[in-house]
Amino acid sequence: MIRESGGEAGTDAIAEPLGGARGSEPVDGGPDSAGDEAPEAHGGAPGNDDEEPVASGGAPEQAGGTTANGGTADSGGGDAEGGTPTGGGQPSGGVSQTGGASSTGGVTVGPGSPLVAPPFDNVPTCTVSKTDGSGQGPFFIHEDEVDNDVSLLRQDIRGRYDSAAEPGIEMQLYLRVLDASNPSCNDAPVQGLEVYVWHVDAQGYWSGFGNPGDQKPDQPYAGVPGKNDLDNLDRFIRGYQITDSDGVVAFRSIFPGWMNGRDLHVEVMVLASGSASRGRVVYSGGDHLLTTQFYFDPALTDSVHKSAEPYLRRTKISAYEGAIKADESGNSGLRAKATLQNNVVVAQLTLLVNQ
Questions:
Q1: How many Å apart are CA 220 and CA 31, to the nearest integer?
Q2: How far apart are CA 353 and CA 339, in angstroms?
Q3: Is the pTM of the predicted complex or chain greater than 0.90?
Q4: Which of 269, 268, 264 is nearest to 327 (CA)?
Q5: Please, which pLDDT band fits residue 185 given cuts at 50, 70 and 90?
């Protein structure tokens, strides 16, 4: 596994291309399937119930928050001014930085500043919910799955498929993991777990899968690219962090776009420390603790999508209204607490796991 170079926060530290790259030409993009074998259409059937339950809530106020892997600069992307790394077939390397948030509410303060989690006191807590009916989906990539890949252990996961497209609205995402087996889960954060996050970019594209032209996010998913089509080394909008002593991880991402046939969502997987790649399978048992998907309040999503490009253009598509409702049959019931502050979405969610 090749780790992206470190460097000073806020300075260029570009990873060299690793081959298999697309050009930066804009191409049609495409959606995630809603499940492992086939997509779940909007309002589709529930999936399996054999995953561990999760909570839709949070935890009491805490001081401090999460830095990238113990406070070291991560390998995420961005330009020297804190901009977004472009996809276009290049690795998602860029500025070595840990994000940017103040300790008073998650508002961006600069590209070299670590993200500091806002208090979790207003996030619902210890409310168990089923995992998502859409399951894992086909587009998960483990840190150790692909040889000679960039490292996914990073806080800054911003990026986009089309370098010519607008970057979208920054999202600062804070997830807290609590022990479901503890009678007072508020007092039982779990440290040292690997929390993976992945979702589409602002236009609805997934990184890593398919060849140019395969993805078409404006059209209902038709099975291409498939779950085994790990055809390129784009790694935007995906990464993992390790929970700190408060059970918290933080990511600096881009608020998701959407893909036709699914509600707008973010995928998350929680694995035990030192987990191993299993390849192109659905993870369960062993070092796997949880896979689910979470959603946003439709009013918040609509306000973000109508505030900026490239989201705004796609609000004219007839499937848009259904895609932001967060009401798919069998969904997890998880809704992130999210606000739009100074043109940054600050989102928080708590998950319960059984170790």
A1: 8
A2: 26
A3: no
A4: 264
A5: confident
